[in-house]
Every structure is written in C-alpha cells, then in structure tokens.
Write a structure and sequence with these properties.
alpha/beta, Aspartate Aminotransferase, domain 1, 2 domains, 15 helices, binds 4'-deoxy-4'-aminopyridoxal-5'-phosphate
Length: about 400
C-alpha cells in the first residue's frame, strides 16, 4: 500500500493552487506527468554545478557529466532488464519510433512487404510507418480490434501473412488503455521472422516492463510521462538489431573517423545514434525519475493505479449521463458527458481545477473504431487520490448543466 499523502509532498505542483485558485487535480498523466522535487533538483544541480558537455572533455567537470549521464543508461537497463548498450537516448517516444521506422524499417522493408498496426495507435506510431511504407512500396495493414477495442492474439494471427515483416503496436494504448498480449505476439511473430516494435509510452511509466521476458525487438518510451523532464526518451533495441539500424541523424560524437572522400566509420550502438550534444539535463533528470519510481516500486505503482481506475469506473457507472468507452481497460478512461462537446466539458472541469484531456488524443483513426469523433480522457498516476476522483465525479454530475456553471 502506497503512502500517497507522503508521496504527494514530493510534487510541488500538488502543493500549490491552479490559476483558478483551487488545488490542482491533475488527471492528464497520459499527456505528461508532474515532476517530483528530486528530478527538479537533479536538473538544477546539473545546470548550477556541473553543466559541461557530455563525452567531449578531458577535465574533471567533463568526467562528472559523463558519469552521471551514463548512470542513467544503467538505470534504464535495470528498469527494463536489458544491457546498457541496448539503451539509446532519444528525444522522446516519437523520436524513438521514428528511428525504428526510418533507421530500421526503411532499410529492411521491400515492395509489397507488410507492416501491421492497429487503429488505436498514437500518431507517433502511425505516421512514420505511413511515410516509410510509401518510400519502400510496402503496405500498412491493420490488426482488427475486438469489440471492446482490445488487441487479441487471435486477431494478430489473422492479420499476419507471409509478407508481414514488422508489427508496431502500443503495449498500452493512450485512449482505450488496454494492455496488449505483447509476449504472445512476440512469440508468434518471431516464429515467422517478424520484428516487433512496441510503443511503451503508456506502459513503461506505469508497470514493470521486462524486455527480455517479453522478448520485444524494439521498445520506445518518453521521460516526461514518467516523472522526468521533457525532450528525453529511450529506444531499447536488441543489440544485433540496433547494429542493423542506421542512424537518422549524423554528426559529432557518433563516428570514430571520417575523411574528406566521404568515408565514414560510425561507432557501435548506442553511440552511433546519439550525434550532437544531447539533452544532458534531461537524461540526468530521467535518471533521477527512474530512481524515484524504482524506489516506490513499479508493481506498487501499477497496483495503486488499477485501484484508482476501478474506483473511478465504479463511480462513473453510477451516473446515467456518462458514456464510457473502455470500462474494462487498465490505463486511461475514455468517456463523454452525454450531449456535451468534449472541449466544453474539459473547460467545465478546468473551472474546478481538474485537468482532463478532450479531443482525439493524437489517435486520429481511432474514431473509425469508436464511431465518435471526440472523447474526454482521464489518466491517473500513483499520486492521484480517491478523494480527487470524488471531486471529479461531482463535476461529472453537473454534466450538461455546464452552461449554468459558467453563466448561472
Ligand atoms: N505513443 C503513445 C501511446 C503516446 O501516448 C504518446 C504521447 N501522448 C506518444 C507515443 C508520443 O510521445 P512523445 O510526445 O513523448 O514523443
């Protein structure tokens, strides 16, 4: 059982007030999470006390930076159970997924090869593949979701053909929040020589993810969705696959030599992908975030969030003015207040200091499945409370009475 009251003390934004003079109830953790003081301190410490470049200098300061910058790689490796050389620093999930699509996909896909996605994917796991397929003459196919919006192994089996080369799917989707059967999918795919790229943006922050146990080929995630800074993310790749992946950015730091004739010798993975000065404070802040999360325990975090979700669903189902699209998911809750445009509803929540998301949530083809163009989304993190959910429910009850709330 987490001591949530104690945990909340770690987050300055949970101890202030919003622009509306009310305490912040932050239910948009799928978009980004709040930052604990230890992360803020780690970033400030770097900026204040040792802000040299990484892997560039031969002086003490530079050594300090390198040590802490590389320490994050060890922490990531521990978090997801891989080797440190399989951890690539990127600028976020989007950047990681683009690297897989353009660095691996563009090199290995041929005309008429097939890439499998679902309509529940985030734009960052869709648009890079659209582009790479167009460039290589390969084809996107979609794995059907079941009638609740889940990804099932049966439907993956049905979608695979002898032309399928890559499956790229979210472990937990950002609107429907279902946890896909990744381990089974990897087994099925690998038996047929298919590569599996997993978008872990909504899973790694919330649960234990063991890449060896799942046997995923690539895993992408973002620092800012797990208490870390923005502008930093991770691409995990099996080492052999990383060696077969081309960097999509070239420049300083990634090569061991080159000459005026254009002959270039790149360093091995992961260094070959990390050209240019990286987001050093981001990487160091991410390290502090991972230490913080591991101290709380990923299983404890997951358990707490499932309890919050179950509580919210139960309360929401007691109201007859809500349409809930994924009562049985495990991540975000997608819903609408009947008859109310989602953005109007989000504004109503905002007046009570409650941050919820409205719209399409960067999953713009999901409406083809949901048959609704916009939804509200609440997404919890371990620092949320049952009391916050009660306050949220009170605002849900106001429902289409929102005009009264604004002007009444
Ligand atoms: N995939 C999923 C499932 C996401 O939820 C997000 C962020 N909303 C992304 C990818 C992209 O993450 P980022 O914006 O940090 O690159």
């Amino acid at each position: 059982m987490l001591d949530v009251e104690k945990i909340r003390q770690d987050f300055p934004m949970l101890n202030g007030t919003t622009m509306h003079g009310k305490p912040l109830i932050y239910f948009d953790n799928g978009a980004t999470t709040l930052k604990p003081q230890c992360v803020i301190d780690a970033v400030c410490d770097y900026l204040t006390n040792y802000s040299g470049n990484a892997h560039r200098g031969d002086y003490d300061l530079s050594h300090d930076v390198d040590t802490r910058f590389e320490h994050t790689r060890d922490l990531v490796a521990k978090l997801i159970n891989c080797d440190r050389k399989e951890v690539v620093y990127t600028y976020g999930s989007t950047d990681s997924l683009n690297l897989v699509a353009f660095g691996y996909g563009a090199l290995h896909l041929q005309k008429d090869d097939e890439v499998l996605l679902t309509v529940a994917e985030h734009a960052s796991n869709t648009l890079p593949w659209f582009e790479v397929c167009q460039q290589t003459g390969s084809v996107i196919n979609y794995i059907d979701l079941d009638n609740e919006g889940r990804l099932t192994i049966e439907n993956v089996k049905k979608a695979i053909t002898d032309k399928t080369k890559i499956i790229s799917i979210a472990q937990v989707t950002n609107v429907l929040g279902y946890d896909g059967p990744i381990k089974e999918i990897c087994k099925l795919a690998h038996d047929r020589g298919i590569i599996v790229c997993v978008d872990g943006a909504q899973s790694v922050p919330h649960q234990s993810v063991d890449v060896k146990d799942l046997d995923v080929d690539f895993l992408a995630f973002s620092g800012h969705k797990m208490c870390g800074p923005t502008g930093v993310g991770i691409l995990y790749g099996k080492y052999d696959l990383l060696q077969e992946t081309s960097p999509t950015r070239l420049g300083g730091g990634s090569n061991s030599r080159y000459n005026s004739c254009g002959s270039v010798k790149l360093k091995n993975a992961p260094t070959k992908f990390e050209a240019g000065t990286p987001n050093i404070e981001g990487v160091i802040g991410l390290g502090a975030a991972i230490e913080y999360l591991m101290q709380i325990g990923m299983d404890n975090i997951h358990e707490q969030e499932l309890k919050l979700r179950a509580y919210a669903i139960k309360k929401m189902q007691e109201l007859d003015n809500l349409e809930i699209y994924n009562p049985n998911g495990q991540g975000a809750i997608a819903f609408n207040i009947k008859g109310v445009f989602s953005q109007d509803a989000a504004s109503l929540f905002n007046t009570y200091g409650i941050a919820v998301r409205a719209g399409q949530h960067c999953a713009k083809i999901l409406d083809e499945f949901l048959n609704v163009s916009q939804t509200l989304r609440v997404s919890f993190y371990f620092y949320n409370t049952f009391d916050e959910i009660d306050q949220f429910i009170e605002v849900c009850k106001k429902g289409d009475d929102f005009l009264y709330a604004f002007f009444g």
